[in-house]
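fyi for ur records
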Amino acid sequence: MSALTNDRKTTYREGIEIEYKVAAGAVIYAGSLVCLNSGGYAEPGADTAGFRFVGVAFEHVDNASGGNGAATVRLRRKGVFRFAASGMAVADLGKAVNVADDQTVATETTNSVACGRIAEFIGATEVGVDINQR
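which gave:
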C-alpha cells in the first residue's frame, strides 16, 4: 500500500446505526446492551472475559438455531440510554460503567467491559449511560 497521490472518494455514513453478525445460538433483545465475543460475533451484553461492548440493540434478533453469522443485529452506537444499576448515587455522575448483563451496568465488574459514563442519575437502581463516553 502507498499514500494517496490523488483525491479519493471515500464512502461515508453517520455510523450511528451499524449491523453486526450474531453469534451461533444467541438471542438479542431490542434495547439490550450488545457485545462482540472474541470471535467478532454479537452476543447479549455480559461481564465476560474477551467481550467488547459495541452498542444498544435496535431490534430483537433470534439466532438460537442458527450458526455464527446466520443473522445480523442493528445497533445504535451513540446516545444516552437508561439501564438498570445497583446502589447508584448522584455522586456517581460522570463515572465510567461496565456491562454487568444485557440490561444492567455497574461501576465495578470482574471483567471491566466498558460501556460508557453515567450522564443521568434517575435513581439508585437506574441511570442514563452515555455510550459515546468510555
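Residues 49 and 131 are 20 Å apart (CA to CA). thats all i got for now
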